[in-house]
Amino acid sequence: MEEVSKTMAEAKAQMDKALEHLDHELAKLRTGKASVSIVQDLMVDYYGAPTPLAQIANVQVSDARTIIIQPWERNMLGPIERVIINSNIGITPSNDGEVIRLSVPPLTEERRKELVKKAKHAGEESRIGVRNARHKSLDAIKKAVKDGLPEDMGKRKETELQDLVNKYVEQVDKVIAAKEKEIMTV
């Protein structure tokens, strides 16, 4: 019985991770507003070592459509600019010798639809993560029933697990619907 409870807790933890991952992925999708999350995961070659952008430069939002990146060392302007161009975020950097400015363009209808597709894909990945957690736990519950756990208790735990899965899938759907609405709002 204790093992089944532990399995349920592990499943819940994995489902929480799937939701966290979804939030992290959706934060990267730009919605026409400037946000440091657009560039925070970019890795810049810093003296031969890939380093997160935030560790070699000050990244801030100056207004609703502009991100300013000010490296702590001037010689990093070029590598940062190259990483932004190669990252395929759809923003062209402007370098004035002191800072790099990223002007976030308003989204076109086509780009909005593309971003909605990406959001839905991220949502599907999270649902898969939730279902994988369910699959692992179901196997553990069935094994426990085989090893002597009363069958009715096993069925109860399976139902409990399915309810948990339904709750998490519903949360994923809500998050995706909200992000879709945010992206499509002009």
Structural features:
four-stranded antiparallel beta sheet; single chain; Topoisomerase I, Chain A, domain 4; 4 helices; 59% helix; 186 residues; 15% strand; Gyrase A, domain 2; two-stranded antiparallel ribbon; alpha+beta; 2 domains; elongated; 6 strands
Concise summary:
The protein is an alpha+beta fold. It has helices spanning 2-28, 77-86, 109-146, 151-184; strands spanning 43-46, 49-52, 57-63, 66-71, 93-95, 100-103.
Explain the overall architecture.
With 186 residues, the chain is of the alpha+beta class. The protein has 2 domains: 2-28 and 108-184, Ribosome-recycling factor (Topoisomerase I, Chain A, domain 4, Orthogonal Bundle); 36-103, 2-Layer Sandwich (Gyrase A, domain 2), CATH 3.30.1360.40. 59% of the residues lie in helices and 15% in strands. It is built from 4 helices and 6 strands; from the N terminus they run αββββαββαα. The protein has helices at residues 2-28, 77-86, 109-146, 151-184; strands spanning 43-46, 49-52, 57-63, 66-71, 93-95, 100-103. Helix 1 (2-28) runs parallel beside helix 4.
